[in-house]
Amino acid sequence: MVAGLLLLVSAGLVSEAAASSFRLTDEEGVTHYTNAPSDPRYQSLPGMSGTAAGWLRVPVAARPGYGDQIREIAGRHGVSPSLVEAVIRVESAFNSRAVSPKGAQGLMQLMPRTALSLGVRNAFDPIQNIDGGVRHLRYLLHRFPGNVALALAAYNAGEGAVNAYGGRIPPYPETQQYVRKILELHGEPRGTGETSQVIYRHEDPDGTITFSNIPPPTRVRLR
Do the Cβ atoms of 103 and 112 come closer than 8 Å? Predict the structure, then answer.
């Protein structure tokens, strides 16, 4: 009986581990998510699992109550509240005290220089951070009108990087995945004239999921 119980427990642990997701923020401040960690610095994300599309979502129960503030601030600046929520989810997982290795701070991961230019005195204050981040995002949406993907790429990699690649999403895997994650979470609008780079999803036999703008041998086109 004891042996049988141990087998059941072991089976449960294996099943749970198979569905686990891991997160790593590297020395450049880029956050990576995977279900097959290849670096000992990856940390398990308890209570989180990949969606059918391969992206990670913060459980509703774990999300702080910033919904009203996001809707009010986003509405005031003319930005979609769901887009702002998706950015916060990917940038900081709703951790208002988050700091990246590069020094980006708070919910929308504002760099100190950017925060200063936006008049944000305390980047760890949720309201100030959201307001500053939304204003910065609004500027980028106006800078790249009709293309949310490019605005998000500029938010992640910088406006200069997008300009350097001729107004296209830079060929950085981290930036491409960042854009794709947010568009998936936000629910990209259809029929609005928006265009974005094609991203492909490929799952290896061992279960590792890769997203790239380069078609895999057997490709699944997401959009």
Answer: yes
Q: Give 23's strand partners.
A: 33, 43
Q: Which of 123, 117, 134, 12 is nearest to 70 (CA)?
A: 134
Give the count of beta carbons closer than 10 Å to the beta carbon of residue 215.
Answer: 12
Residues classed as catalytic: 91
The distance between the two most distant Cα atoms of the chain, rounded to a whole number of Å, is: 67
Rounded to two decimals, the pTM is 0.59
The answer to whether the beta carbons of residues 93 and 60 sit under 8 Å apart is: no
The CATH-assigned architecture of domain 2-221 is: Orthogonal Bundle (1.10)
Of 106-110, 116-120, 184-188, 189-193, which range is least confident? 189-193
Q: What are the residue ranges spanned by the domains of the chain?
A: 2-221
CA distance 102 to 201: 29
pLDDT in tens, 47-80: 443 333 344 444 444 445 699 999 999 999 999 9
